[in-house]
Structures are given as structure tokens and as C-alpha cells.
């Protein structure tokens, strides 16, 4: 296995996903490729040698070579995410290490059905899986159960609509926990076992499940899916703590 | 375009709220990779206390405090402690019986 070494990535496109979430394309000439679900470490170093590292999930599919997208939520009072949001501009170079992760990964060759469960920016590594699934051309049955606070905070909303509209076996179930627009017909509460049962039912007991989000949400999902009869070794989790910075 | 040097811009961003909830071993995959020489998050490790073998990526990780503490997901005993200091890294391995680093097939 190759050692994990730091390399310089050049910031390309910066795209707003929501008022507080941005995606950054990083050009990485020496990139060895990644598996959907993996992350990179990003290191910032000041002139006095002070440095800080954060992990960010890769949002892009591995079919794109030589670059990755990361999607970063701005955390007020954070040390890295405000810098990325307010200071970094295209052409800046950032130290990147990765790809990292051999557990929370899914590739089309693993097959499905696939249940993806996300809270907020926990959708990012699951988006890499959904994009990879779409690019693979295999109509693997897959559902994303996605909890956001408000409709304005739904990350990748338009692209998720497009993926679901392709009618190739992918659909999205939204729940909005804080505020719903007029005429909202989706769920309006935090993810619970009844909601998981609804999401899982059409996929069946051979489903592979991936849950990513705040620690509390991931605990609910992992425990709920086990009670619904999914074998623990088919449930993979990635907790990112109370917020992630 | 912000024309100021990166280090000046960076120096403005220093404060960080503490993070104290449990994370998965994947969260410190880069740090573990630097210690073990390759990505071990998908590799098995055995807790020296209860002898449960778990993938390193499923271990429980606590980032609060001066170092990183990694605990067994089965018995919650400490398997690894890692402290990064300006002079180097201190790695306490007493809690882990083995890590198997598998070669790609």
C-alpha cells in the first residue's frame, strides 16, 4: 500500500451549495484516485509553524481524474472552515493528504440495494457514492434519506432532484426538521425508526446501509437499522461529531 | 482577489470550539496512516483488554483534550493514545494487541 503523503492541491472552481455550504474543486496532479466515501485531510500552516488539520469527505465520483471536490460547511468560530469560505480564492494552493478510509466506502462492484442516510453535511461522502452509482450505468436500487433543517439548507438539492428524475432506481426522501415551505409533503421530524422502516422497506433485507452525520443521528440510524433486522456488518457509519469544523 | 499572503490570512483564523463527541476511527485515518505507514482504517486490530478484533475505522475516537484517544468499540477500553507535540509524536500502544496491515489483493 502506498504511504499517505501530503501534496499540494490547487483550488479551482468554488461553488455555493447553500448559504453556509460551499464546494471547492481541488486539482491534484499526483492524485492516485479514490473510492466513494473516502476523505482527505487538509492542513493549513501559518508562517510561525502553527498548523491545523481537518478531514473533509470527498464529494466527487472517482470517474473524474486528477481532481476532487470537497464540500465544506462554514462553522462559526471554527478555525478552518471560515478560512476556506472567506479567504481562499481560486488559484490558492492547499496541503492535502489522502485518500483516506478503507471502511466507509462503497463501489458499484459491491452491488446493492443501497440505503444512504444523511444528516446535513453528512450527505457529502454519500453524494460521492450516488454520483459514482449514476456514472457506473448500473441501475442499482438506491435511496437517500436526507435530513436537513430547512429547504434552503438542502445541500446538492438540484442535483439530487436530477438524479432522482433519471428514473434509474435512485430516489431521495427528504425530511425538514426545523421549517418547511408551504405545501411541503415530505417528513417534518428527525430521522427515527419508523422513517427508517419506510425507507428500507422497498429495498429489502439484503440492503447495504451507509449513515453519515452528527454523532447522535448516526447512533439512531445504526441502532434502528439493526432493530429492523439489517445485519450489523451491512451497516457502515461515519460520525462527524456535533458539527465538524 | 485577496492579494495578501496566505500566512497573513491564515493567522486571522485561530479560535476553535472544542469537539468532544465520539467519532469513528476513519476520522483519524490520516494520523494513523502516518504512524503505521499506510491507511489502516480498513484493517483489523485487536483490543488488548477484551481481545475483540475490530476494523480500525470502527474504533471510537475522542479528540478532546491534549491528545487523541482511541477506544475499543466493544469494551470501551483505551487501545491507542496519540499526542502530537512540537518536538514529535508520543504514541501509547499498550491497549492494542495487534494491527494487521494487509497487502492489496
**In total, how many beta strands of chain B?**
8
Walk across the major sheet of chain A and give the strand order: 4-3-6-1-2-5
Query: Taking strands numbered 1, 2, ... along the chain, how are they ordered across the largest sheet of chain B?
Result: 1-4-5-6-7
- How many strand units of chain A? 11
**Percent range for helical residues of chain B?**
10-25%
Computed structural class of chain A: alpha/beta
Mean pLDDT of chain A: 93
- Radius of gyration of chain A over all CA atoms, rounded: 18 Å
CATH architecture of the largest domain in chain A: 3-Layer(aba) Sandwich
Multimer state: heterodimer
Share of helix of chain A, binned: 10-25%
Rg of chain B: 17 Å
What is the helix tally of chain B? 2
- How would a textbook summarize the main sheet of chain A? 6 strands, antiparallel
Form type of chain A: globular
Biggest interface pair, counts:
A-B, 44 and 43 residues
β-strand amount of chain A: 25-35%
Amino acid at each position: 500500500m502506498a504511504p499517505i503523503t501530503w501534496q499540494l492541491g490547487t483550488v479551482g472552481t468554488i461553488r455555493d451549495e447553500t448559504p453556509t455550504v460551499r464546494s471547492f474543486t481541488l486539482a491534484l496532479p499526483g492524485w492516485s484516485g479514490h473510492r466513494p466515501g473516502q476523505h482527505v485531510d487538509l492542513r493549513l500552516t501559518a508562517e510561525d509553524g502553527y498548523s491545523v488539520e481537518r478531514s473533509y469527505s470527498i464529494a466527487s465520483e472517482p470517474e473524474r481524474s486528477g481532481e476532487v471536490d470537497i464540500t465544506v460547511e462554514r462553522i462559526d468560530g471554527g478555525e478552518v472552515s471560515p478560512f476556506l469560505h472567506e479567504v481562499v480564492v481560486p488559484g490558492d494552493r492547499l496541503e492535502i493528504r489522502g485518500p483516506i478510509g478503507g471502511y466507509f466506502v462503497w463501489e458499484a462492484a459491491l452491488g446493492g440495494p443501497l440505503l444512504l442516510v444523511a444528516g446535513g453535511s453528512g450527505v457529502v461522502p454519500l453524494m460521492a457514492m450516488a454520483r459514482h452509482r449514476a456514472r457506473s450505468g448500473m441501475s442499482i436500487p438506491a435511496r437517500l434519506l436526507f435530513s436537513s433543517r430547512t429547504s434552503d439548507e438542502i445541500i446538492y438539492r438540484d442535483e439530487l432532484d436530477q438524479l432522482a428524475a433519471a428514473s434509474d432506481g435512485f430516489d431521495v426522501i427528504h425530511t425538514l426538521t426545523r421549517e418547511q415551505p408551504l405545501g411541503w409533503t415530505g417528513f417534518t421530524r428527525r430521522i427515527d425508526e419508523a422513517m427508517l422502516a419506510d425507507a428500507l422497506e422497498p429495498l429489502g433485507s439484503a440492503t447495504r446501509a451507509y449513515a453519515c452525520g452528527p454523532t447522535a443521528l448516526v447512533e439512531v440510524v445504526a441502532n434502528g437499522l439493526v432493530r429492523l433486522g439489517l445485519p450489523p456488518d451491512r451497516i457502515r457509519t461515519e460520525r462527524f461529531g456535533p458539527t465538524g469544523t | 482577489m485577496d492579494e495578501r499572503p496566505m500566512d497573513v490570512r491564515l493567522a486571522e483564523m485561530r479560535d476553535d470550539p472544542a469537539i468532544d463527541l465520539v467519532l469513528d476511527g476513519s476520522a483519524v485515518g490520516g494520523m494513523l496512516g502516518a504512524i503505521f505507514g499506510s491507511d489502516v482504517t480498513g484493517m483489523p486490530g485487536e483490543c488488548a483488554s477484551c481481545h475483540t478484533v475490530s476494523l480500525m475505522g470502527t474504533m471510537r475516537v475522542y479528540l478532546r483534550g491534549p491528545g487523541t484517544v482511541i477506544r475499543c468499540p466493544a469494551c470501551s477500553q483505551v487501545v491507542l493514545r496519540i499526542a502530537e507535540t512540537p518536538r514529535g509524536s508520543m504514541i501509547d500502544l499498550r491497549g492494542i494487541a495487534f494491527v494487521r496491515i494487509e497487502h492489496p489483493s
